[in-house]
Protein backbone atom coordinates (compact mmCIF):
# COMPACT_ATOMS: atom_id res chain seq x y z
CA UNK A 1 0.00 0.00 0.00
CA UNK A 2 1.20 3.48 -0.67
CA UNK A 3 0.51 6.95 0.54
CA UNK A 4 -0.38 9.47 -2.07
CA UNK A 5 2.67 11.62 -1.43
CA UNK A 6 4.97 8.60 -1.54
CA UNK A 7 3.32 7.28 -4.64
CA UNK A 8 4.03 10.51 -6.41
CA UNK A 9 7.63 10.62 -5.27
CA UNK A 10 8.18 7.10 -6.49
CA UNK A 11 6.67 7.81 -9.83
CA UNK A 12 8.30 11.16 -10.28
CA UNK A 13 11.08 10.17 -12.66
CA UNK A 14 8.40 9.15 -15.15
CA UNK A 15 5.69 11.73 -14.61
CA UNK A 16 6.26 15.41 -14.98
CA UNK A 17 3.01 16.53 -13.35
CA UNK A 18 2.02 14.71 -10.21
CA UNK A 19 -1.72 14.86 -9.81
CA UNK A 20 -2.20 14.95 -6.10
CA UNK A 21 1.14 16.11 -4.81
CA UNK A 22 2.12 19.69 -4.48
CA UNK A 23 5.76 18.74 -4.14
CA UNK A 24 8.23 19.55 -6.84
CA UNK A 25 8.83 16.41 -8.86
CA UNK A 26 12.31 14.93 -8.84
CA UNK A 27 12.17 15.11 -12.63
CA UNK A 28 12.94 18.80 -12.27
CA UNK A 29 16.61 17.88 -11.96
CA UNK A 30 17.02 17.74 -15.73
CA UNK A 31 16.74 21.50 -15.78
CA UNK A 32 19.59 22.00 -13.35
CA UNK A 33 22.34 24.17 -14.76
CA UNK A 34 25.30 22.39 -13.35
CA UNK A 35 25.86 18.76 -14.19
CA UNK A 36 27.41 18.13 -10.82
CA UNK A 37 24.39 19.59 -9.09
CA UNK A 38 22.09 17.58 -11.32
CA UNK A 39 23.98 14.43 -10.49
CA UNK A 40 23.84 15.13 -6.77
CA UNK A 41 20.12 15.83 -6.94
CA UNK A 42 19.48 12.72 -8.97
CA UNK A 43 21.49 10.67 -6.52
CA UNK A 44 19.48 12.01 -3.59
CA UNK A 45 16.29 11.29 -5.51
CA UNK A 46 17.43 7.71 -5.96
CA UNK A 47 18.34 7.41 -2.31
CA UNK A 48 14.95 8.81 -1.29
CA UNK A 49 13.22 6.35 -3.61
CA UNK A 50 15.26 3.52 -2.19
CA UNK A 51 14.53 4.49 1.42
CA UNK A 52 10.83 4.86 0.62
CA UNK A 53 10.77 1.42 -0.90
CA UNK A 54 12.23 0.08 2.35
CA UNK A 55 9.77 2.01 4.50
CA UNK A 56 6.58 0.72 2.97
CA UNK A 57 6.16 -2.99 3.19
CA UNK A 58 3.05 -3.60 1.17
CA UNK A 59 1.34 -6.92 1.38
CA UNK A 60 1.58 -8.23 -2.14
CA UNK A 61 -1.72 -8.77 -3.87
CA UNK A 62 -2.65 -12.46 -4.01
CA UNK A 63 -1.88 -12.63 -7.74
CA UNK A 64 1.72 -11.42 -7.43
CA UNK A 65 3.55 -14.19 -5.57
CA UNK A 66 6.80 -13.10 -3.98
CA UNK A 67 9.83 -15.16 -4.87
CA UNK A 68 12.34 -14.44 -2.17
CA UNK A 69 13.97 -17.77 -1.41
CA UNK A 70 16.78 -16.08 0.54
CA UNK A 71 14.31 -14.89 3.22
CA UNK A 72 14.59 -16.62 6.54
CA UNK A 73 11.46 -18.30 7.81
CA UNK A 74 10.00 -16.27 10.65
CA UNK A 75 7.71 -17.12 13.51
CA UNK A 76 5.35 -14.50 14.89
CA UNK A 77 3.82 -15.25 18.27
CA UNK A 78 0.53 -13.54 19.08
CA UNK A 79 0.60 -13.15 22.84
CA UNK A 80 -3.07 -12.19 23.17
CA UNK A 81 -5.69 -12.66 20.49
CA UNK A 82 -7.09 -9.16 19.94
CA UNK A 83 -10.47 -8.79 21.68
CA UNK A 84 -10.27 -12.52 22.36
CA UNK A 85 -11.15 -13.07 18.72
CA UNK A 86 -11.83 -16.68 17.92
CA UNK A 87 -11.03 -16.20 14.23
CA UNK A 88 -8.70 -18.75 12.69
CA UNK A 89 -5.12 -17.56 12.24
CA UNK A 90 -4.14 -16.87 8.66
CA UNK A 91 -1.93 -18.96 6.45
CA UNK A 92 0.14 -16.04 5.19
CA UNK A 93 1.36 -17.80 2.08
CA UNK A 94 -2.12 -18.92 1.09
CA UNK A 95 -3.90 -15.71 1.98
CA UNK A 96 -1.30 -13.05 1.15
CA UNK A 97 1.43 -14.85 -0.82
CA UNK A 98 3.76 -14.09 2.06
CA UNK A 99 6.25 -16.92 2.21
CA UNK A 100 8.06 -18.28 5.20
CA UNK A 101 5.77 -16.67 7.78
CA UNK A 102 4.43 -18.75 10.62
CA UNK A 103 1.80 -17.14 12.81
CA UNK A 104 0.98 -18.87 16.06
CA UNK A 105 -0.75 -18.11 19.34
CA UNK A 106 0.89 -21.03 21.15
CA UNK A 107 2.95 -19.47 23.94
CA UNK A 108 5.27 -22.47 24.00
CA UNK A 109 6.82 -20.95 20.86
CA UNK A 110 8.14 -18.03 22.97
CA UNK A 111 11.75 -19.24 23.19
CA UNK A 112 12.20 -19.47 19.42
CA UNK A 113 9.74 -16.85 18.12
CA UNK A 114 11.38 -14.12 16.05
CA UNK A 115 8.78 -11.66 17.26
CA UNK A 116 6.01 -11.41 19.82
CA UNK A 117 3.09 -9.17 19.02
CA UNK A 118 1.05 -7.61 21.80
CA UNK A 119 -2.24 -5.86 21.29
CA UNK A 120 -2.56 -2.74 23.40
CA UNK A 121 -6.06 -3.36 24.68
CA UNK A 122 -5.19 -6.73 26.25
CA UNK A 123 -1.72 -5.65 27.31
CA UNK A 124 -2.97 -2.89 29.62
CA UNK A 125 -5.40 -5.15 31.47
CA UNK A 126 -3.16 -8.22 31.69
CA UNK A 127 0.26 -6.96 32.81
CA UNK A 128 0.72 -10.00 35.01
CA UNK A 129 0.53 -12.22 31.94
CA UNK A 130 3.64 -10.80 30.27
CA UNK A 131 6.31 -13.40 29.45
CA UNK A 132 8.24 -14.36 32.58
CA UNK A 133 11.31 -15.75 30.89
CA UNK A 134 13.95 -13.28 29.68
CA UNK A 135 13.52 -12.05 26.16
CA UNK A 136 15.64 -14.05 23.67
CA UNK A 137 18.38 -11.66 22.44
CA UNK A 138 17.22 -11.31 18.84
CA UNK A 139 13.48 -11.43 19.56
CA UNK A 140 11.40 -8.35 18.80
CA UNK A 141 8.38 -7.24 20.72
CA UNK A 142 5.80 -5.51 18.60
CA UNK A 143 3.29 -3.06 20.04
CA UNK A 144 0.05 -3.22 18.03
CA UNK A 145 -2.74 -0.66 18.41
CA UNK A 146 -5.50 0.54 16.11
CA UNK A 147 -7.37 2.74 18.55
CA UNK A 148 -6.71 6.45 18.75
CA UNK A 149 -4.73 7.95 21.66
CA UNK A 150 -8.04 9.09 23.21
CA UNK A 151 -8.99 5.44 23.63
CA UNK A 152 -5.57 4.03 24.52
CA UNK A 153 -4.71 4.26 28.19
CA UNK A 154 -1.42 3.75 30.04
CA UNK A 155 0.77 4.57 27.04
CA UNK A 156 3.46 6.06 29.30
CA UNK A 157 4.03 2.67 30.90
CA UNK A 158 5.28 1.26 27.59
CA UNK A 159 8.41 3.36 27.09
CA UNK A 160 11.49 1.23 26.46
CA UNK A 161 9.53 -2.01 26.27
CA UNK A 162 8.97 -2.57 22.56
CA UNK A 163 11.18 -2.88 19.51
CA UNK A 164 8.65 -2.12 16.80
CA UNK A 165 5.35 -0.25 16.57
CA UNK A 166 2.41 -1.27 14.45
CA UNK A 167 -0.55 1.05 13.94
CA UNK A 168 -2.57 3.19 11.54
CA UNK A 169 -0.16 6.04 12.19
CA UNK A 170 2.22 6.98 9.36
CA UNK A 171 5.74 6.48 10.69
CA UNK A 172 4.90 3.28 12.55
CA UNK A 173 7.58 0.64 11.99
CA UNK A 174 4.78 -1.47 10.57
CA UNK A 175 2.32 0.94 9.07
CA UNK A 176 -1.10 -0.42 8.20
CA UNK A 177 -3.98 1.99 7.69
CA UNK A 178 -7.62 0.91 7.98
CA UNK A 179 -7.81 1.11 4.20
CA UNK A 180 -6.13 2.56 1.16
CA UNK A 181 -6.61 3.17 -2.53
CA UNK A 182 -4.95 0.92 -5.04
CA UNK A 183 -4.36 2.12 -8.55
CA UNK A 184 -6.34 0.02 -10.99
CA UNK A 185 -4.25 -1.87 -13.50
CA UNK A 186 -6.64 -1.18 -16.33
CA UNK A 187 -8.27 2.12 -15.74
CA UNK A 188 -9.94 4.96 -17.48
CA UNK A 189 -12.87 3.19 -19.09
CA UNK A 190 -15.03 2.24 -16.17
CA UNK A 191 -18.04 4.51 -16.19
CA UNK A 192 -18.86 6.08 -12.87
CA UNK A 193 -22.25 4.73 -11.96
CA UNK A 194 -24.46 6.88 -9.85
CA UNK A 195 -27.72 5.18 -9.10
CA UNK A 196 -30.75 7.42 -9.06
CA UNK A 197 -33.38 6.69 -6.43
CA UNK A 198 -30.90 7.22 -3.65
CA UNK A 199 -31.53 8.72 -0.25
CA UNK A 200 -29.44 11.75 0.59
CA UNK A 201 -27.42 11.25 3.79
CA UNK A 202 -26.85 8.20 6.00
CA UNK A 203 -24.96 7.75 9.23
CA UNK A 204 -24.29 4.55 11.16
CA UNK A 205 -23.35 5.06 14.79
CA UNK A 206 -23.06 2.39 17.43
CA UNK A 207 -21.76 4.42 20.36
CA UNK A 208 -23.88 7.53 20.79
CA UNK A 209 -22.43 9.74 23.46
CA UNK A 210 -23.43 13.34 24.05
CA UNK A 211 -19.89 14.52 24.82
CA UNK A 212 -18.54 13.41 21.47
CA UNK A 213 -17.74 16.10 18.96
CA UNK A 214 -19.43 14.13 16.19
CA UNK A 215 -22.73 14.06 18.11
CA UNK A 216 -22.49 17.77 18.88
CA UNK A 217 -21.83 18.45 15.21
CA UNK A 218 -24.85 16.38 14.25
CA UNK A 219 -27.09 18.43 16.57
CA UNK A 220 -25.95 21.59 14.81
CA UNK A 221 -26.41 20.06 11.35
CA UNK A 222 -29.77 18.46 11.91
CA UNK A 223 -31.93 21.65 11.72
CA UNK A 224 -30.75 22.11 8.11
CA UNK A 225 -30.36 18.56 6.84
CA UNK A 226 -32.25 15.34 7.31
CA UNK A 227 -29.93 12.44 8.14
CA UNK A 228 -31.07 8.81 8.24
CA UNK A 229 -29.36 7.33 11.30
CA UNK A 230 -28.71 3.62 11.70
CA UNK A 231 -27.21 1.70 14.62
CA UNK A 232 -27.88 0.22 18.01
CA UNK A 233 -30.28 2.92 19.19
CA UNK A 234 -31.65 3.85 15.77
CA UNK A 235 -32.90 2.14 12.61
CA UNK A 236 -31.70 -1.41 12.08
CA UNK A 237 -29.29 -2.00 9.19
CA UNK A 238 -30.71 -3.60 6.07
CA UNK A 239 -29.70 -7.25 6.07
CA UNK A 240 -27.35 -6.47 8.97
CA UNK A 241 -24.99 -4.94 6.44
CA UNK A 242 -23.53 -1.45 6.59
CA UNK A 243 -22.50 -1.60 2.93
CA UNK A 244 -25.93 -2.71 1.70
CA UNK A 245 -27.58 -0.02 3.77
CA UNK A 246 -25.29 2.86 2.84
CA UNK A 247 -25.20 1.95 -0.86
CA UNK A 248 -28.70 3.43 -1.06
CA UNK A 249 -27.42 6.90 -0.18
CA UNK A 250 -25.47 9.64 -1.92
CA UNK A 251 -23.53 10.81 1.14
CA UNK A 252 -22.26 9.20 4.30
CA UNK A 253 -21.19 10.95 7.49
CA UNK A 254 -17.75 9.44 8.13
CA UNK A 255 -17.33 11.07 11.54
CA UNK A 256 -14.47 9.71 13.63
CA UNK A 257 -14.99 9.15 17.35
CA UNK A 258 -11.95 11.31 18.12
CA UNK A 259 -9.67 13.55 16.16
CA UNK A 260 -6.03 12.46 15.76
CA UNK A 261 -3.38 12.50 13.05
CA UNK A 262 -3.93 9.66 10.52
CA UNK A 263 -6.82 8.27 12.53
CA UNK A 264 -9.08 7.58 9.55
CA UNK A 265 -11.00 4.41 10.04
CA UNK A 266 -13.32 1.98 8.31
CA UNK A 267 -15.99 4.67 8.64
CA UNK A 268 -14.37 6.27 5.62
CA UNK A 269 -12.95 3.25 3.77
CA UNK A 270 -15.71 0.70 4.15
CA UNK A 271 -18.85 2.46 5.32
CA UNK A 272 -18.60 5.27 2.78
CA UNK A 273 -16.21 4.41 -0.07
CA UNK A 274 -16.93 0.70 -0.49
CA UNK A 275 -20.65 1.51 -0.32
CA UNK A 276 -20.31 3.96 -3.18
CA UNK A 277 -21.30 7.00 -1.10
CA UNK A 278 -19.39 10.26 -0.97
CA UNK A 279 -17.91 10.68 2.51
CA UNK A 280 -18.51 13.79 4.55
CA UNK A 281 -15.65 13.61 7.02
CA UNK A 282 -15.06 14.94 10.51
CA UNK A 283 -11.67 14.02 11.97
CA UNK A 284 -8.12 15.25 11.37
CA UNK A 285 -7.66 18.27 9.06
CA UNK A 286 -8.23 18.09 5.32
CA UNK A 287 -4.49 17.98 4.52
CA UNK A 288 -4.21 14.80 6.55
CA UNK A 289 -6.98 13.12 4.53
CA UNK A 290 -5.30 14.25 1.33
CA UNK A 291 -2.33 12.10 2.19
CA UNK A 292 -4.54 9.08 1.71
CA UNK A 293 -6.97 10.01 -1.04
CA UNK A 294 -7.55 12.62 -3.75
CA UNK A 295 -8.84 15.99 -2.61
CA UNK A 296 -12.06 15.57 -4.59
CA UNK A 297 -12.94 12.15 -3.16
CA UNK A 298 -14.46 13.56 0.03
CA UNK A 299 -16.12 16.56 1.60
CA UNK A 300 -14.64 17.86 4.84
CA UNK A 301 -16.93 19.40 7.45
CA UNK A 302 -14.13 21.92 7.98
CA UNK A 303 -14.45 23.23 4.41
CA UNK A 304 -17.51 25.22 5.42
CA UNK A 305 -18.27 28.09 7.72
CA UNK A 306 -20.64 25.89 9.63
CA UNK A 307 -23.19 23.06 9.49
CA UNK A 308 -25.70 25.26 7.70
CA UNK A 309 -23.33 25.92 4.77
CA UNK A 310 -22.42 22.25 4.63
CA UNK A 311 -26.09 21.28 4.45
CA UNK A 312 -26.70 23.80 1.67
CA UNK A 313 -23.76 22.41 -0.31
CA UNK A 314 -24.92 18.79 -0.04
CA UNK A 315 -28.38 19.82 -1.26
CA UNK A 316 -26.76 21.74 -4.09
CA UNK A 317 -24.84 18.61 -5.15
CA UNK A 318 -28.06 16.62 -4.89
CA UNK A 319 -29.67 18.89 -7.49
CA UNK A 320 -26.58 18.91 -9.75
CA UNK A 321 -25.65 15.37 -10.78
CA UNK A 322 -22.66 16.51 -12.84
CA UNK A 323 -21.14 18.22 -9.80
CA UNK A 324 -21.90 15.22 -7.62
CA UNK A 325 -20.21 12.88 -10.10
CA UNK A 326 -16.94 14.79 -9.71
CA UNK A 327 -16.68 13.32 -6.24
CA UNK A 328 -16.88 9.86 -7.78
CA UNK A 329 -14.39 10.42 -10.59
CA UNK A 330 -11.42 8.90 -8.72
CA UNK A 331 -13.18 5.52 -8.93
CA UNK A 332 -12.10 5.21 -12.56
CA UNK A 333 -8.46 5.00 -11.45
CA UNK A 334 -8.56 3.41 -8.02
CA UNK A 335 -10.04 0.54 -6.10
CA UNK A 336 -10.64 0.66 -2.37
CA UNK A 337 -8.83 -1.83 -0.20
CA UNK A 338 -10.14 -2.32 3.33
CA UNK A 339 -7.66 -4.10 5.59
CA UNK A 340 -8.94 -7.27 7.10
CA UNK A 341 -8.67 -7.47 10.88
CA UNK A 342 -6.63 -9.38 12.02
CA UNK A 343 -5.32 -11.75 9.39
CA UNK A 344 -3.78 -9.06 7.24
CA UNK A 345 -2.23 -7.42 10.28
CA UNK A 346 -0.48 -10.57 11.44
CA UNK A 347 0.89 -11.37 7.98
CA UNK A 348 2.07 -7.79 7.46
CA UNK A 349 3.83 -7.92 10.85
CA UNK A 350 5.47 -11.24 10.06
CA UNK A 351 6.72 -9.95 6.71
CA UNK A 352 8.11 -6.84 8.36
CA UNK A 353 9.95 -8.99 10.87
CA UNK A 354 11.46 -11.06 8.05
CA UNK A 355 12.66 -7.88 6.41
CA UNK A 356 14.24 -6.44 9.55
CA UNK A 357 15.89 -9.41 11.23
CA UNK A 358 19.11 -7.49 11.81
CA UNK A 359 17.50 -4.33 13.09
CA UNK A 360 18.15 -3.74 16.76
CA UNK A 361 16.19 -0.94 18.33
CA UNK A 362 13.97 0.03 21.21
CA UNK A 363 11.00 2.41 21.20
CA UNK A 364 11.98 4.72 24.03
CA UNK A 365 9.22 7.33 23.83
CA UNK A 366 6.18 5.48 22.68
CA UNK A 367 3.59 7.71 24.37
CA UNK A 368 5.26 10.91 23.20
CA UNK A 369 5.29 9.69 19.61
CA UNK A 370 1.82 8.17 19.49
CA UNK A 371 0.09 11.08 21.21
CA UNK A 372 1.80 13.78 19.17
C1 LIG B 1 11.31 -22.32 5.08
O1 LIG B 1 10.32 -23.32 5.29
C2 LIG B 1 9.99 -24.04 4.11
C3 LIG B 1 8.80 -24.93 4.41
O2 LIG B 1 8.83 -25.39 5.72
C4 LIG B 1 11.23 -24.82 3.67
O3 LIG B 1 10.94 -25.55 2.49
C5 LIG B 1 12.35 -23.84 3.39
O4 LIG B 1 13.53 -24.52 3.07
C6 LIG B 1 12.62 -22.95 4.59
N1 LIG B 1 13.55 -21.89 4.22
C7 LIG B 1 14.57 -21.52 4.98
C8 LIG B 1 15.45 -20.43 4.43
O5 LIG B 1 14.80 -22.02 6.07
C1 LIG C 1 -7.24 -17.95 3.78
O1 LIG C 1 -7.47 -18.71 2.59
C2 LIG C 1 -8.31 -19.82 2.80
C3 LIG C 1 -8.35 -20.63 1.51
O2 LIG C 1 -8.60 -19.79 0.43
C4 LIG C 1 -9.70 -19.35 3.20
O3 LIG C 1 -10.54 -20.45 3.44
C5 LIG C 1 -9.57 -18.53 4.48
O4 LIG C 1 -10.82 -17.99 4.82
C6 LIG C 1 -8.57 -17.43 4.31
N1 LIG C 1 -8.37 -16.80 5.61
C7 LIG C 1 -8.31 -15.52 5.79
C8 LIG C 1 -8.15 -15.07 7.18
O5 LIG C 1 -8.39 -14.72 4.85
C1 LIG D 1 21.14 -4.89 20.54
O1 LIG D 1 21.82 -3.83 21.17
C2 LIG D 1 22.04 -4.04 22.56
C3 LIG D 1 22.66 -2.79 23.15
O2 LIG D 1 23.45 -2.10 22.21
C4 LIG D 1 22.95 -5.27 22.73
O3 LIG D 1 23.14 -5.52 24.09
C5 LIG D 1 22.24 -6.46 22.09
O4 LIG D 1 23.08 -7.60 22.14
C6 LIG D 1 21.90 -6.17 20.63
N1 LIG D 1 21.09 -7.27 20.13
C7 LIG D 1 21.26 -7.78 18.91
C8 LIG D 1 20.30 -8.87 18.53
O5 LIG D 1 22.09 -7.37 18.13
C1 LIG E 1 -18.30 5.22 23.75
O1 LIG E 1 -17.97 6.60 23.85
C2 LIG E 1 -17.55 7.01 25.14
C3 LIG E 1 -17.36 8.51 25.14
O2 LIG E 1 -16.52 8.93 24.11
C4 LIG E 1 -16.24 6.27 25.49
O3 LIG E 1 -15.80 6.62 26.76
C5 LIG E 1 -16.49 4.78 25.41
O4 LIG E 1 -15.27 4.09 25.60
C6 LIG E 1 -17.08 4.38 24.07
N1 LIG E 1 -17.46 2.98 24.08
C7 LIG E 1 -17.09 2.15 23.10
C8 LIG E 1 -17.58 0.75 23.24
O5 LIG E 1 -16.42 2.51 22.13
C1 LIG F 1 -30.22 -9.54 1.72
O1 LIG F 1 -29.30 -10.57 1.42
C2 LIG F 1 -29.80 -11.56 0.57
C3 LIG F 1 -28.79 -12.69 0.48
O2 LIG F 1 -27.48 -12.20 0.39
C4 LIG F 1 -30.11 -10.95 -0.79
O3 LIG F 1 -30.62 -11.93 -1.68
C5 LIG F 1 -31.16 -9.84 -0.60
O4 LIG F 1 -31.38 -9.17 -1.83
C6 LIG F 1 -30.67 -8.84 0.45
N1 LIG F 1 -31.76 -7.92 0.77
C7 LIG F 1 -31.70 -6.62 0.59
C8 LIG F 1 -32.87 -5.84 1.04
O5 LIG F 1 -30.70 -6.07 0.09
C1 LIG G 1 14.34 -4.90 22.07
O1 LIG G 1 14.13 -3.98 23.10
C2 LIG G 1 14.67 -4.44 24.34
C3 LIG G 1 14.21 -3.50 25.44
O2 LIG G 1 14.83 -2.30 25.36
C4 LIG G 1 16.19 -4.53 24.21
O3 LIG G 1 16.72 -4.99 25.39
C5 LIG G 1 16.53 -5.48 23.08
O4 LIG G 1 17.94 -5.47 22.84
C6 LIG G 1 15.83 -5.11 21.81
N1 LIG G 1 16.01 -6.17 20.85
C7 LIG G 1 16.09 -6.00 19.54
C8 LIG G 1 16.28 -7.21 18.71
O5 LIG G 1 15.99 -4.91 19.02
UniProtKB/TrEMBL annotation:
One GO process term, biological-process aspect = inflammatory response
Keywords on this record?
Answer: Glycoprotein, Glycosyltransferase, Golgi apparatus, Inflammatory response, Membrane, Signal-anchor, Transferase, Transmembrane, Transmembrane helix
State what this protein does: Catalyzes alpha(1->3) linkage of fucosyl moiety transferred from GDP-beta-L-fucose to N-acetyl glucosamine (GlcNAc) within type 2 lactosamine (LacNAc, Gal-beta(1->4)GlcNAc) glycan attached to N- or O-linked glycoproteins. Robustly fucosylates nonsialylated distal LacNAc unit of the polylactosamine chain to form Lewis X antigen (CD15), a glycan determinant known to mediate important cellular functions in development and immunity.
Outline the extent of the Fucosyltransferase N-terminal domain: 72-179
Pathway(s) where this gene product acts: Protein modification; protein glycosylation
Please verify whether the record's keywords include Transcription regulation.
Answer: no
Compartments annotated for it: namely: Golgi apparatus membrane; Golgi apparatus, Golgi stack membrane
Q: So what family is this one in? A: Belongs to the glycosyltransferase 10 family.
Can you quote a single GO CC term? Golgi cisterna membrane
**Where would you find the membrane-spanning parts of this chain?**
37-59
Q: What is its EC number?
A: 2.4.1.-
The residues covered by the Fucosyltransferase C-terminal domain are 196-369
The principal location of this protein is Golgi
Q: Report what the protein is called.
A: Fucosyltransferase
Q: Which reaction does it catalyse?
A: an N-acetyl-alpha-neuraminyl-(2->3)-beta-D-galactosyl-(1->4)-N-acetyl-beta-D-glucosaminyl derivative + GDP-beta-L-fucose = an alpha-Neu5Ac-(2->3)-beta-D-Gal-(1->4)-[alpha-L-Fuc-(1->3)]-beta-D-GlcNAc derivative + GDP + H(+); an alpha-Neu5Ac-(2->3)-beta-D-Gal-(1->4)-beta-D-GlcNAc6S derivative + GDP-beta-L-fucose = an alpha-Neu5Ac-(2->3)-beta-D-Gal-(1->4)-[alpha-L-Fuc-(1->3)]-beta-D-GlcNAc6S derivative + GDP + H(+); an alpha-Neu5Ac-(2->3)-beta-D-Gal-(1->4)-beta-D-GlcNAc-(1->3)-beta-D-Gal-(1->4)-beta-D-GlcNAc derivative + GDP-beta-L-fucose = an alpha-Neu5Ac-(2->3)-beta-D-Gal-(1->4)-beta-D-GlcNAc-(1->3)-beta-D-Gal-(1->4)-[alpha-L-Fuc-(1->3)]-beta-D-GlcNAc derivative + GDP + H(+); a beta-D-galactosyl-(1->4)-N-acetyl-beta-D-glucosaminyl derivative + GDP-beta-L-fucose = a beta-D-galactosyl-(1->4)-[alpha-L-fucosyl-(1->3)]-N-acetyl-beta-D-glucosaminyl derivative + GDP + H(+)
Q: Quote the PANTHER family the UniProt record gives.
A: ALPHA- 1,3 -FUCOSYLTRANSFERASE (PTHR11929), ALPHA-(1,3)-FUCOSYLTRANSFERASE 4 (PTHR11929:SF132)
Amino acid sequence: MELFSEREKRKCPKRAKPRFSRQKPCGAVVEAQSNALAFALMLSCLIILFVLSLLSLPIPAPDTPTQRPEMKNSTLLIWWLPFGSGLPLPDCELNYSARGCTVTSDRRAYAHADAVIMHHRELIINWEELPEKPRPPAQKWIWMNFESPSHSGFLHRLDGMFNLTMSYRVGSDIFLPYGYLQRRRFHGNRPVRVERHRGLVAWVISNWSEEQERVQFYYRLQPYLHVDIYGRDFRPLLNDSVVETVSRYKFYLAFENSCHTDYITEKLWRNALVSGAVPVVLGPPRVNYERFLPADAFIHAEDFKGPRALAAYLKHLDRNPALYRRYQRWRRDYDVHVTSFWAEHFCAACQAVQASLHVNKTIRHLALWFES
